[in-house]
Each structure stands twice: as structure tokens, then as C-alpha cells.
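cron nightly-structures :: item 1 of 1
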Amino acid sequence: MPCRINKAVGMSASAPERPAMDGGGVDDPSWRRRIVAGAGDLGVAVTASQAAQMARCAGELISWNRRINLTAITDPDEVAVKHFVDSIVPASWLPAGSRVLDVGCGAGFPGIPLKIVRPDLHVTLIDAVRKKVSFVSHLIRILALAHTEARHARLEDLRRQAPRPVFDAVVCRALGPLNAWGEDTAALLAKDGFVLAWKGPAVDGELDDLRRAGDPPDRIRLGGGWATVAVTAYRLPEIGDRRCLVRITPLTLQDQSICGHKEQETCKRCFP
């Protein structure tokens, strides 16, 4: 069953002029201009000082990666677009002051770039690999990012924690199939909270794994209940790689009664 695709994130006519690919390293001004231009193409405003913070992160990433395996992407141009620009696509979707959990943060993506462009966010980044958490903690220190912490933990650890932490948004990039972690993330959401998952273009199959025949196309089953799902498709600037951002919002019991099935409140598919 095809998913509902929102209008794709498009190119901005007013985006700054972009430097040619194969430019200088992350210390070169052209790298920072690439960040500003690429983000502008996707409708995200990045200031010069924010681009400078990202350049510092990128320099640390490339340096640390020589000693420990943090990322397979090491070309400076690809780091700019595939790590930093891609991470900030949904920056405007997060309400002011949101509590954000980055699950499986790896080298800090998308949580650190989101925090840079949205300093009002309260960000917790978790990963099961201690060396990656050490690197992210290092970035938090050198950038003096307030209301930001990195923890060596798994998603299920937070779910078992008492009291259980609550977040307004959970962000996940390269975390595996949705049916492997969707229920655990939903359990950590505040009322009206949502999950943002970065996916490739072939996301329909993952969503279908969370549906049954006859289910509405804009719903998936999550943790014994319903969640709405909306997919936004876009292409990475310059590179052209296709991406999808999947927004999953669990529904309250009251919301679930408005299911679109003829039986509504007595629908056996909504209330098995």
C-alpha cells in the first residue's frame, strides 16, 4: 500500500550561490558556504556563525575518525551535505523549546546539527557504542551546547527507567526498520509528540509491515494502537540522493475512534 507523500521539500529560488564541488576542506570558507546554500535549497536558514560551528564539528569528526570508526563518510563535501544539511531538514517542524531524543545518534547526527540551528531545543543523544558517545560529549563541550547531553544507553534502557523520561520528539537516522523500534520510541513521547525517521526512497515496505489489509493509508499500528504517518520526500542538494522523512504521531484513544472505517468506535481493526 503506497504511503501518503507530502509535497516534496523543494529548491529555494533565493538560496545563496553554491561553491563548486571538490572545493576545500572543512576549514575552507567554501565549505561553510556549501552548508548555507544547501540548507537554503531545502528551506532551512543557517547563519554564518552556525555554519562555523558545523565546520568545527566536521573537523573534529574527520580527525577523530582517523583513530576510531565514527563514519564511513569522510569526503568534506559529502560530510557537508549527507551529514549536516540532511540532519537539519525538519528544523522548523519542532515546536519551540522541544525536548528531543536522538536515538542511535552515532557521531551526533541529526541531534547536534539540529541543536546548532535550533539552540532553544533540549536535546538528549543516546547510543549503544561508548566511543561514539564520548565523541558526541566532546562536541557538546567544545561547542558549549546548553541543555544537551550524550548518554551511553539503549532505547529499551530509557523505556525501563523510572521515572520514564518523556520527549516531545524522537529523531532517528539510520536506525533500522521501523517495526524494530517504533513501539519503544512511541512509549517515550509526551502527548502530541511525534517520531521523525530519516529513510531512503523505499520506505513503503517498512510502513506496510505495520499495517494490515484494509487499514487506512495514513495510519500504522504501533504498540497496540494507531499512529498517523506522513512522508515528506526530498533530494539532497548537489548530490541528488533521494530521501524521505517519516513523521509518526501516535493517536490518543479518543482520536483512534475517528478511523474512517464504517464501524468507527466498534471497528475491530482499530480496537482488536
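cron nightly-structures :: done
The chain has one domain: 5-266.
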